Structure formats: structure tokens, C-alpha cells
Fold:
Amino acid sequence: MFEKILIANRGEIACRVIRTARRLGIRTVAVFSEADADAQHVRLADEAHPIGGPRPQDSYLRGEAILDVAKRIGAQAIHPGYGFLSENADFADAVEAAGLVFIGPPGHSMRKMGSKAGAKDLMAAAGVPVVPGYTGMEQSLEMLQREADRVGYPLMIKAAYGGGGKGMRIVRSAGEFAANLESCQREAKNAFGKDRVLLERYVEHPRHIEFQIFADAHGHAIHLGERECSAQRRYQKVLEESPSAFVTPELRERMGAAAVLAARAIDYRNAGTVEFIVGAGGDFHFMEINTRLQVEHPVTEEVTGLDLVEWQLRVAAGEPLPLAQEQIVQRGHAIEVRLYAEDPDAGFLPGSGRLETLQLPSPSPRASATQEGVVRIDSGVIEGDTVTIFYDPMIAKLIVWDEDRPRALARLRAALAQCRVQGPKSNIAFLERLVRHPTIVDATIDTGYLDRHLDEFFAPAEDDPQLLLAAATVLLLQQETLAARAAANAPDAGSPWNARDGWRLGTAGVRRLVLDHGTQEFALQATGSDGSYAITLNGASHAIAGARLGDGTASLRIDGQMRRFAAATFGPFIEVHDGQRRLRLRISDGPRRDASGGASDEHRIRAPMPGRVVVVKAVPGTALRAGDVALVLEAMKMELALKAPRDGVIAEIRAQAGEFVEADAVLAILEQ
Structure:
């Protein structure tokens, strides 16, 4: 086994590798960018070294800088984590050439999988089922259009290099092909440095099912069962689970054998994932091999009881696989969701900023095979850390395990109810609705369902009147508490003018409360005090009685029915949760200005978040229609199209391609 390894990555995977290595008595070395100087993986490692600026290309993608550190400090091996250089064959070869061990597959195996086109041809030759399509080197528009027409529609355009949902477009008719091809090629060029694409038949309503594989240097290759990752939004996985409720024992055996065949076809070693697209009838087709550990590997660990990072280290050190295929036993059901700093109400716009509050459920690792359930948190940040604009905005992975799928879902819902994030916005409320949706409960979701029916996973705030009333009550109680404290410290503390009972001469005092939920505004009126109120909402009056704040809770009677809510306030926000639904509201100072008044911003195009301008598609004098793209912004590994808010002519462009801009910066102005 190794004495010292370097982790060429960041975030939760770096923290995970460090903890496993420490358990095995291996010293760890972290590398970090300027943006990560105080990151958790830096603090956890035995030593840490800077390697460059905040952008990945200035730090974590600098293979030569990472190798220099490894050689200077005497590391024997480099663990690449996932992302960055983990699937870079040149880096793997450079590590080996430097006399170190790359903890992953050899470079020649990666090269066979580095091109999706070459991978498909190789798999077809090996007898692994593949989707019909075009994988040729000829990339002219004319050739690609002709091949697209031959393959038939709908079809998918995919970047030949890379992954993670980048450089992928679905085309449903010949007339849509050219525009989608241009967009896909540009995104592929920006993300992977190469704009080659391949075409393949798009399978309608498919399942995404992948198999964890492992191979050693002694000729052994096995699989550790499947994971279902069909809950996706724009090809990004949202929920992963193992085993799949869709896969029968017979289908599992056939797909597992195909996954092992795929591994042997490329002389694979270490951990990898063979991904399949599966039709409604159980027909499956090879999609790709991810030549690294996957983000969702914890669900496999929980159902097998194995530590896959430990397996990676042992195999890389030359040991044979710890178990044979017939010794792999799966038990129970595991589910993982990813908590992101993003705003689902704004098209899942990635967020950044300091995590003022980060409350996650307490982990409950399985101490024995008889323990009822598991809650596991894999995270690279803690409260007080910052989610930066330079990397993926994932806050944590929440993983649960239980004896069967219904109990695992129930455990996941309970764990999500305990999560709270203040600072950047998060997707927690979206995940809570997701895990209660019938397609998840019944295990019928396909890879396109979220994109087709996204509105089903959002509920307007007015559908939750009791949550609104609870939030208003919490605000009233908090206002009274703060006012009472201020009065107690006043020189005339006993004055009746300091009383906070809502009394007014001749009539009850009416308090106006304005609460915002996204673009919705709720104006409520309240009378009363000390936990007893009459609150008017949408023209109807509701009686609140016995309202009290506890430790993170609020209990109150709403129209005679006693209810208890989780409740918290964060600066201008109130968040309440009834055990199933979460509602977060901003406390407003008053009604919003009318959109037609002076507050209108319809002649400006702003950056919704910090990022880099990659394309400027308009110049002064360009006439645009509402919705036309004026600029394209790259932030947090994704492209954002910035569109004209109305018909008009560009008066001014304030940014150029390659320029970094701050959030809310005005990038273009339309003539008024």
C-alpha cells in the first residue's frame, strides 16, 4: 500500500479520499487554487500546496503543476477524483512516466473511451449493443445534415469528447438541425477543447441505468450492480438509486455481463461506470464508459457495504480485487440526491456566496447489518464556507439507506426536512417535491420527464395557505419579541407607549405584512398581539391562537386546529416547514413598484450571476426581438443565454468576449 498520495481534486471527493486514506494509514497531500485556500479538503489533508489561480485552467487543470508538487513532496500516487483531470489520458501517462501511480485506468484505456464515437465503434465490434447513429470524422454541416436525415428524427447531437450533460442537443426535425449543431459545437469547444460531434437515434422515454465496474491488473473484471439515474434535468442527474426498481434479475444479469464485456474490451483497470440507455421494453444500448469514480458511487457502497475508494487504492497498489463476482451481495435500497446552490425558481440558475447557515441531518452510519437505516452526508463545505463562481455549486450529497425502497424514500424525505441553507439559494424545496412525486414513488420516471413536466415540481405559494399563515405568525411574534426587548432597555420602560399589545384608540391596531415568494407578493393584515391574532389573507380572515416560538419551531392554532411547524428566520427571510412542504419568504418593506413605472429594467440586459462572457452576438444598431440572444455567459460549468427583454435596437454593448463580469452588471442597453 502507498505511504503518501496526492489528491488532484477538490470538494467532497477530495475530502472523501482523504478520510479513506487516513483510515488506511496513508498520508495525504492536497492541492488548491487561490479560491480554495481555506477549503475543507485543504484543512483535512496532512499537507496542502497552492497550484495557481481560481479558474480551473489556472490550477486544477494544470497537470504539470500538480506533478511538480507530487514529486517535490515524495508522493507515490495521484488520485484524480472525478472531473478535472480524472479522464485525461495525457495526464495519466505523464503520471506513470514520472514514476508515480495514477489511481485510475491506464491512459490507453481512456483514449479508447475519450471519443464517444470511437467508443461506440469499439463496443459494437466487441458485441455490446449500441444505438444506431453516425460516428464518422467528416464534420461538415452538409455531411452531418445528410447523416442526421439518414438516422432519422428525433436524434441526439452529442459532443464526441466530454460528458456531464455538456454538448448535447435533441433535434426533432430536419429544420432544427443546423442551429442545434452550431450551439452544440460551440459548447463542446468551450468545455472540452474539441467540437467534434456524433449523432445517434434518440430513444423516447428512456431509462438511464449504469453499472459500477472494477478491474485489476491480474485479469479480473467484475460489476457491483446497477444504479438508476433516470431522474435528470437537461442531462444532469438529480436523483440516483440502487438497485433499480425497473431492472429484473434476468435483465440485471444480461446488462452486468455486457458491462464486464465492455471493460475487458478496453483492457480496463480500477473503477469505472458503464452507462446504458434502456427502452421501455427492456432493450438496452451502450452509451459510454466513465473512466473514473462517479459522483453517485455512494449508493453502490451503501447496498454492497464496500468502500470503493479503498478498492481504488488497493487495485492501484497492485492488489487483486478484494472479491469475486459471486461474492458481491446487495442488500436493501439506497438513494442519493444532490444539494446545490441554485435557484429552481429562476431556471436553476447557479448561485454563489457565503453559507451563512448550513444545517444538514446528523449522519447515522450503519454500525451493523441489523441497524434500521442510514443517513450519510458527503460534503466539501461547512457553515461559513463560500460557494465560489469558479466550480460546480454542489453543497452536499445526501444519501440514505434502508431495507427497501419505500422505507428509503421515507427516510430521505425526513432527512431533507432537516436541511436548511441560508446564503445562496438552494434546491432543497425542489428535491422535497421531487421525492414525493408519483413518478419517483412509482419508479416510472424517464430521463426526459423533468424537462417535459418541470411545472409539476413547483407549487405556487398560494396553494399553501397554512404555511403562509404560519410564516406571518412567526413574523408577528418576532416583531413583538424584538420590540419588547427594545422597550425593556428604554429609559421609560414602564411607559404605556412602549406596550406592544396592538391597542389603538377607538379601534384595533392593524399591521400590514408584505411577504415575497419569487415573483409572487402576499399582502396580509393582522390585528391582535401576544400569540392571538386575526390575519386576513386573500380576503379571508383566519383566527390564530396560542402561538408560541420554540427551539426552531412554531406551534399555533389555525382556525381552531393546532399545528406545529419547523420555523426559522434568516435576515430578511422566513422559512417554515410542515413536515412535507417547505416555504421560504422574503420580508418586504412594502408593495413592489409597478412594472411600468420607473423601476422598469426592460431596456437593460444584465448578468444574472458572476461569469465570463463567451459570445457577443449583437453590436450597437442590431435589431432584436424579445427573446433573441444578445450575449452568452459562462458560469459554473454552464452556458447562460442572455436574451433581449423586449423588441428593440441595441444602443450600447458594455462587455466583450473573454471578459469576466460581476452579478447584476449591465452588459447591453436597448434604445429607449
